[in-house]
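Fig. S4 source data, part A: sequence.
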Amino acid sequence: MITLVDVHKAFGSQPVLRGVSLEVPKGLITIIIGRSGAGKSVMLKHIIGLVQPDQGRILVDGVDIAQLRGQAQDALRQRFGVLFQGGALFDSMDVFDNVAFPLREKTRMGEGEIRDKVLERLRQVDLLGMERKFPAELSGGMRKRAALARALIMDPEIVLFDEPTTGLDPILVTGIHRLIATMHARFGFTGVVVSHDVPHVFTIAHRVAMLHQGVITEVGTPEAIQASADPLVRQFITGALEGPIRAD
């Protein structure tokens, strides 16, 4: 569904992506792992068209999104849902209005239809009864679940997850991963998850890609990645200080 072909990106004199090539299969969850600052979030921004590559192509169903403008670009983006790293909920809106926001902005649904759909999504993420709470009144795990409900409210074909478990304790991490897997089984979206939460994130992955120094160094199943003989991959997934990756 998504193909990156020799994607390069630099910000000023600082290169971030140095020739990323990756295929994201339709209907599966692909995990992008790598160190903080490796360019994982920049990859996501390229996939949704928020950042243009200096070189290379990003194809969604064969369409180069860098060539789209105006209504064509907007139409493509409506196929995406995004779970941002911090949730990105609007502090001034309660949970219901946060989840309803895309429906009110992008559709002509009536308030009755919107209410039914929002409450159904909140039920699916186990937040029914919390719809009139504000983000500040929620726990970290609840905020993530509210943000996931909003990411899925438009029934997207593709969902991007930017560090979905940042700031959560191990029990909540397991809960969010299980919820992502449950929502994927229910809706069948194509998922791209950026994370350095290894090996826990492997439990929801169909494919794993390692990004290091601006290139994809290895792609495979979770089992293949965990059995990899590549010293870069081995050091990262084990967290060892000794190896080719400098601990700085």
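Fig. S4 source data, part B ends here. The two ends are 36 Å apart (CA to CA).
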